[in-house]
Amino acid sequence: MSEVMEEGRTATAADTRHFDVVVVGGGLGGLYALHRLRGLGLSVRVFEAGSGVGGTWFWNRYPGARCDVESMEYSYGFSDPLQQEWHWPERYGTQPEILRYINHVADRFDLRRDIQLNTRVVSAVFDPAAGQWTLGTEQGEMVTARFCVMASGNLSTPRVPDFKGLESFQGKWYHTGLWPHEGVDFSGLRVGVIGTGSSGVQMIPHIAAQADHLTVFQRTANFSLPARNAPLDPEKERRHKQEYEDRRRAALDTPFGIAGHPAPTQGALQVTEAERQSAYERKWAEGGSISFLYSYTDLLVNQEANDTASEFVRQKIRSIVRNPATAEILAPKDHPIGTKRLCLDTNYYETYNRNNVSLVDVKSDPIQEIAATGLRTRDGTFGPFDAIVFATGFDAMTGALREIDVRVEGGPALAEQWEAGPRTYLGLMVSGFPNMFVVTGPGSPSVKTQMILAIEQHTDWIADCLTYMRDHGYERIEASRPAQDAWVEHVNQVADSTLYPLANSWYVGANIPGKPRVFMPYVGGFAGYKRRCDSVAANGYEGFVLSR
Ligand code: N01
Asked: Looking at the chain, which terminus has fewer C-beta neighbours within 10 angstroms, N or C?
């Protein structure tokens, strides 16, 4: 038996060997896939690498980790009793709170009996003659399944840059995405943090409050807005719960999958400078990123319009950070606001006013190597450090899938086929890989939306597809090559009509040296994307080849 039971009874390797569906990943995506597909009467097994369910929220336990989508939104909508009964204490959920919620869902819907923990899937091979997948685990188990659902996550392959000398570092080092479960006490320590994306921005104020001294190494200055987190107002919660059904439905009709933000009607350049400033001030005071980007219709498509919002935030940084030289390093100038993931923070810029915090610009002077007690850039040495924290991100969107040896027997691996960048039809299937679905894969809106809504939409689509196949006697489904090619072209065209490609972001794989530069998420908006998926299904799964 390969699993360790963390909570409740989980599935074991000795249980059944053949399933209708194998789901890879026991995060928010895998759990809902299990619930939904089991509801169709299918036998389903989930394999999860971690010792508990939760995916992202299981691994990312760094200090200050919390979601930047409001908790009343960032939750499952498939069960009204669940959403009515669950109480979120704060405007934004903390990592422990979200993990508690996910565990509650696992228990409430009796999911654990079909989840095998501590089991990393390393291979998935389709046998065209038998019409089934064989999945292999790190421990050498093999199971077969008619269908395979990859719910392996978009930000689940943590990446420590390939710095020379890391093994010689005598202190402790950590990655935000592989945080020790027992936590880390930085009290009295000299700490270096590398990376200022969402994880770094959330974590830095917390480490600064504990450490003797914190040195932050920043390569790209990032835009961050105040989150304005607070205890959830009971009246707001009551109203939201009363309107839940309508709000969930309304969210489906929005670009980011989040309701409650009136769509903008004017471009930024159509109003006066004074009006713009007052709008941005209002959004800054309100907190949240969607609302800010929703100030005007054209912030993500028109450079001049975007400049007004970017400059507003740069000025805020200059007004918060007392040392002008530090403020200039922190003020992003190399990408339009919103084209990298816009961060939300609590006292991030204020942290640089502390006496025990210093900032190093490693864009102009890159890190060369890690040494026994610190690190070296081209022009200097930094340390000594008792600990180094890598907030250096993930091999995003394709990392988890490319780590699995996915192939059709005798054919090239998915990783080889994606050497020039991922290619999917609707982010749901890959041509040449029958009966393998991807939940929120590259080419779907996924990371550009409220993820749980995206997960539910994909999983519901897959469930409806399997029902259709059963009702019509089909056994195999595959994305056609022309449909996939046309979709990939559309994804690129849409991205090219926006400002997104101007940033060196993980959306284009820029954070991984050598990764092909391809814009991976679909930024045409959730609402239009969902309509497209629905019409594909209504037209008998247009662009897919179904066979017996
Ligand atoms: O990772 P990132 P993250 N030398 O890739 C730097 C979600 N998330 O874990 O920008 C020096 O954004 C890198 O620099 P650069 C969210 O979708 C959500 O922070 O590549 N620096 C960057 O500053 C988010 O976008 C939440 O130049 C190096 C940082 O490391 C995604 O996860 C919270 C370097 C990596 O930033 C990933 O966020 C946390 C090097 N060699 C995460 N290599 C919330 O919901 C990399 N960097 C709030």
From this structure: C
Q: CA 301 to CA 203: how far, in whole Å? A: 31
Please provide the DSSP assignment of 512-523 as one string.
STT------S--
Question: What CATH fold (topology level) applies to the domain 159-222+346-393?
Answer: FAD/NAD(P)-binding domain (3.50.50)
**pLDDT of 286-324, one tens digit each?**
999 999 999 999 999 999 999 999 999 999 999 999 999
Model-level pTM? 0.96
Residue of 194, 329, 511 to test ligand 1 pocket, by largest number of atoms within 8 Å of CB:
511
- Whole-number Å distance, alpha carbon 277 to ligand 1 midpoint, is 29
Q: CA triplet 338, 510, 497: central angle to 5 degrees?
A: 50
The single residue listed with the structure tokens 């490693």 is 362
pLDDT in tens, 430-459: 999 999 999 999 999 999 999 999 999 999
Mutational pocket test of ligand 1: of 68, 199, 256, the residue with most ligand atoms within 8 Å of the beta carbon: 199
Residue 332, preceding bond cis, omega within 30 degrees? no
Angle at 228 between CA 180 and CA 270, to 5 degrees: 125
Domain limits, the chain: 2-157+396-547, 159-222+346-393
The two three-digit tokens of residue 24, written as one number: 């890879």
How do 375-377 and 367-370 pair as beta strands?
A: antiparallel
Q: What is the pLDDT of residue 15?
A: 62
- Cβ contact 453:527 at 8 Å: no
CB atoms within 10 A of CB 328: 15
Tens digits of per-residue pLDDT, 52-65? 999 999 999 999 99
CB 351 within 8 A of CB 359: no
Nearest to 276 by CA among 237, 308, 241, 230: 308
CATH topology of domain 2-157+396-547: FAD/NAD(P)-binding domain (3.50.50)
Residue 491 in this model has a pLDDT that exceeds 80: yes
Q: Tokens for 491, please give them.
A: 């994804």
